Amino acid sequence: MSGKSGPSKRSRQNTNENPYATDVHTYIAEKEEEIKDLQKANEDLKETLKHTKQDLNKSQIENEKLSTYVKELIEIQKTFTEQLHSVQETLCTILTNQNKNENTLESIKNTTSKQAEEVRTQLRQQQQQQQQQQQQVKQQLQKQSNEWVQVVRKTNKTDVDLQRSTKSTSTTSKTDKKTESKTKIERRILITRSSSTAARASPLAIRNAVNSALTSNGAPRNATVIAANYNEKGTIVLTTREDCDAKVVLKYKQQIYEQLRKIDSVINKPQVQKNWAKIIVHHVSTEQYNDTTESINELHHEIENMNPSVKLVTSPRWLTSPKRREGKTRSSIVIAISDQELTKKIINRGLWIDGRRTKTERFTGVKLTDQCSKCYSFGHYAVRCTEQVRCRICAASHETRLHVCTTCKTTAKECPHIKTVCVNCKQNHQANDARCEMIQTLRRSRTGGSKASGAAEEDQDELML
Fold first, then answer.
1. Which residues pair with 189 in a beta bridge?
2. pTM, to two decimals
3. CB 189 within 8 A of CB 206
4. Sign of the alpha-carbon torsion through 167, 170, 174, 176
5. Are the C-beta atoms of residues 369 and 293 closer than 8 Å to each other?
6. Residues 245, 249, 251, CA angle at the centre, nearest 5°?
């Protein structure tokens, strides 16, 4: 037993002999660990300081930029403040001016109201005066009309006496000459009007006023107007007795003009109708010439300067309306020539306009009642028709000569198998039937109030007025 317990006892003895050695080693080991930790912490601190220094440098740069921005903002704020102050001053000035303007407007309104009231009063007075004048003119015209009726009665009585005297002496005086009748053109007098929209006097009043002027100025007994009417262009057309030339009546045109001005203030002086020849000139530039007076005058001078023998009796006019000429670079005009021989030459040779020879043809005047044989509308002829072809019998889109009934084999004639339809009024008659409502309406509008005048002429003048 003693042998086994010997070494353990020695170790306990060594341990008991160096109790501080173990602590020292432990302490040293701990310190070494601490030193390592401190070294690592030192390195981390250096790295942190390095990054902190970089961040400080960046912050310093950003601070400098921020300082610059702040300075700029301060300058902008100063500028804005100055501008704001200027705007405030401007607003104050505007408000002041507005107050002044309001006061001025108020005073103007008051003045305008007074002036308007004065104008209304003056207009009422003028209307009353005009009504009084019109009443006086009506009374005067009525008086003159009565006088004219008495003159006509006396004239008729004289005519009867003359006829009796002629009959009683017809066996002894066979050498008396018959009264020579004049043509319609020779008996026609035209009175143009400066406004087509102005109010028109009645044809009967016009006729009586003209005859009253002739009678009061000692005109010959046969110098009498038997009819007065308006044509489609608003021109007054006077027709004299069959044995009276218009030139006889026109010797008193100044007196007639003064008398007619009392009932129609927009008339011009009477003139005899002239038989002009009218020519269509094709391919005239719509870009060079338009509808203005200046442009038409320029075209007038171009025609006369480039064609020395041509003298136009009136300004040229476009054949179609401005709407129909939209999108076209060239269109046609109508000119009037007084020389018939020259007209034939122009139609054969053409005219020089803007450096080129233009094609020409004779102009054929149309009336509202003239019916096209192609489309069966009114106011134009088939030679210039641009509408779709229509059948006169059934109103279908084919020529009348191609109207064929497959049942009875008739061609271009009415039959019970195909319904007859008017292309204009859609009733069951042919397009040129006199019963057509459109034809009757056009005829009534064409003659207008000529029934009151007693003898309206069916043909109208074609002067380019």
1. 238, 272
2. 0.40
3. no
4. negative
5. no
6. 115
